[in-house]
Amino acid sequence: MIPESAVFLKNICYTKLVFDRVNKKLQTNLSNEEIKNLVNKIISDSETSIIKRGKNYYLQNNHVELVINSYNYRLITANKKI
């Protein structure tokens, strides 16, 4: 069962290394707060699709895919979708 967006927004957490990984994968230079705002915006968007594969949730919106651990809601990475 896929949780509601509110569950993701309430429980999403980050590691220090994920901010560097997100900037590298998206080819950006965003601050930690800007990354958090981007992630929250993607999670909140009604156009975002959420699927679960294995132990991860994949949230896809426009050209960005977020990978979030389904056990602890930790952001693992963000991928550019073309």
TrEMBL record:
It holds the Pfam family DUF3781. InterPro entries: DUF3781. This is DUF3781 domain-containing protein. It comes from Companilactobacillus crustorum. The lineage of its organism: Bacteria, Bacillati, Bacillota, Bacilli, Lactobacillales.
